[in-house]
Amino acid sequence: MINYVAYYRTSTNKQNLGIDAQKTMVQNYLKSVGGILVEEVEEKESGKDDNREGLERAIQICEKTGSTLTIAKLDRLSRSVSFLFQLRDRVAKNNVEIKALDLPSFNTLTLGIYATMAQAEREAIASRTKLALAELKRSGVILGKPENFKHEHRIKGAEAMKLKALENKMNQQATALINEYRAKEHSYDRIAEQLTKLNFRTAYNKTFTSTAVMRLYKRNLQNIDKLKMVA
User: Which domains, ranges and CATH numbers included, belong to the chain?
Assistant: First the structure.
């Protein structure tokens, strides 16, 4: 059996639910692989802060026990690309493996690649969101309380909600996972089951269904086509 050290992080002291969700993902994974949980390390610290005592402690435990550092999602490590590259060099030097549960093909060797991709995606999302909001305003979408909108404004507001759902962080991570599974020809039902096991939720905090998976997958394909047309 493989030994694991779980690392959980939230940005504020009020995000205990985030810790619980991460623990559920790790526990479900360990049950599925029969792994041994050596220790759990919790930390309430901003992802922008590279001085992370909890993460350092978790890595040291992995080095001493030969355990795999396990995180629910890649962004629990850091938002800083430079920090992630430094972390990659550190753990590779000491033969520490890292497992990110939201990215099945992720490992220590691909950490730098995923870090670079994550930053590029964040920048692309910010750019797309800015352009989309500008287009919505140009089309006459009025920001404010829904009850004050006219019928046509509510229709356009629904489009804005779809955009928000697309750009939802959880959806971004779920989409990456869906794309990976679809490339392996997994069915929508099977993907929905896997997302549920990993404790993923939709933008409306619902459990993923095969329909929701298909909708998100096709929406992402449409988004990619639009970006190709603009490029």
Answer: 3-112 (3.40.50.1390), 139-230 (no CATH)
